Amino acid sequence: MNSKLVFINIVRWMLLLFIQVFLLRNLGFYNLATPFVYVLFLLLLPFRTPNLLLYLIAFVTGITLDAFYDTIGVHVAASVTLIYVRILFISVSVNRDGFDEPEPTLGNMGFKWFSLYALLCIFAHHLVLYLLEAFKLTELSYTLMRCLFSGLLTMLTVLLIEFVFYNRKLR
Predict the structure, then answer these.
(1) Nearest partner of 133 among 47, 68, 72, 91, judged by Cα
(2) SS3 state of residue 159
(3) Which of 44, 45, 80, 165 has a 20 to 30 A CA-CA distance from 56?
(4) Closest residue by Cα to residue 143 from 15, 60, 32
(5) What contacts 132, CB < 8 A, 6 or more positions away?
């Protein structure tokens, strides 16, 4: 990984966490949908990043959010779950060694692949996040509804950010 890519990812991490903590923390639609844009940072980490480093980055990102949200390990577990699903999906769908592109963006991978990738990772993240947050099965339908609506809102936000900031690669 070159130094330019490391610098871009550090800036992306700080910017997305700042937006999440200071702008989107208290934004909620009827306590059913909350966008979590920080997952975009975890989704866009380069392909050639070692798995141990991915888990470490997810842990640090989650613990940082847990510190600001006053939760105990909820975001850590959700972020690590997202990275686990990311590793599984990329290992099944992409040959990382023979791949020329540095990171899995919408412009590099195409809409169909990126949207499926983001959808699986975001819903795994939200399922763990909201199940651990509620931590009771008596409100399972409400928790699953929150997971669905927040996942859709996060997916829409992630795709919107990707469409705004990334150009489609000429094939």
Answers:
(1) 72
(2) helix
(3) 165
(4) 32
(5) 73, 74, 77, 78
